[in-house]
Amino acid sequence: MISGITSGPFGRKRQEVVPCTIEIENTFESLHAHVDIEGAAPVEAGDSVLVHGDPIRVPYGEKLVLRRQATVTRAGALERAFTRLLARLELTELYEVSFSSGSKL
Question: Which residue among 20, 23, 49, 71 is buried most deeply as judged by most CB within 10 Å?
């Protein structure tokens, strides 16, 4: 694990380069991609993960598991709080969506 510090709009951020496992599936049953970070604290609100390497393409009907390096950039306390606030506001927008056709029953 390699650590460093960078600066961003909300102050200084801590970065870690860690190994990760990538699982991608493109089948009739499932279309998903998961990244498991190894050797680092859990990713929290406001953190970002950048997986290193070339783009991955998985043909239909196949599943692929790879190991690569990833850079985890940790959010500071202010950015973490701001991200949580924005997430809550975006969630409340869903409450305003109506799925009715507008006609009376």
Answer: 20
